[in-house]
Amino acid sequence: MSKNLKNKTLGELESIAENLGQKKYLAKYIFTFIHTKNAEGISNISTLSKDFRAELTERGYHISNLNTVQRLTDPDGTVKYIFEADDGNRIETVLLTEGKRRTLCVSTQVGCAMKCTFCATAKIKFRRNLTAGEIVDQVNVIQKDKGKISNVVYMGMGEPLLNYDAVLKSVRILNHPDGKNIGIRHLALSTCGQAKALRKLAEDDIRPRLAISLNAPTDELRSKIMPINKKYLIAALMTAVKYYQLKTKMRVTFEYVMIKGLNDSEICAQSFVKLVRHIKCNVNLIEYNPHRHCTFAGSDRRTIDRFALILDDAGIETTVRLKKGQDIKAACGQLGDDLPKPS
Ligand code: SF4
Question: Cα separation of 19 and 244, whole Å?
Fold first, then answer.
């Protein structure tokens, strides 16, 4: 069992305190010191007695910290952090600022096993899941560096629903009023289409906002660029999305990366409309960001606007997401391009 206190919910910390013969309320000091005061070691939790701190340390409890290897700033203001975990694995996290809104795009795995053809992270392949502590720490470090984070999106490296327990635990920690207190509507998770896990999430007692990375309106096309589609066909995915919506009453977001000549035709837009028009949703059209591992090119602006118009005309709220952080390879689909590949 992990002895990293950053990995623990408040309830788990209360159990630890009680098991050590201490008062339950002391757990709150540990939780708030880690998640609001960025305590990097047990010795920093000054509200605990010296004896309790010593006992925690003697029993192997500790607080892990991601090490910032590099911080890159794009001319458009996007900032990318490269972090190293205790075992030497590296991940990337991106901060996007729009007025007062600071959105952090966090990673959930080292690499990714999903092999989406347009994505640089897929080239690192899957190494391991991140712990809840490592997910939360991306927020801790960047908030300390840049100020209050208003939104967290689980859209960085990895497929969040394949690291279900740690991701949901990190949502609980970030959402907790005694910690960062980030509202559940300000926490969003994006999946490539893990239909089974989506149904599990629908039954959970804490549910962040949901985004589905769709990227193609037909099985034939989607299976070419997203191998997950061979496991869960679009029909199965849509059934799971509708079930999620039935349970949560929440609007979902469909993400669609616009790739020149591949998925950006008017026919694709019309098929897309047929697919989602009965779902309470909005659509984000994302400009494709090229990287050295892929020969795809991004759709031109006219094609994207025409695609958006077809969706808009069908009454589907559509936003075009412009490239951000491209110079520092922090844009959507580029994460991990700077990290070491498997030998
Ligand atoms: S797009 Fe997401 S799910 Fe697909 S390979 Fe990249 S990180 Fe993994």
Answer: 38
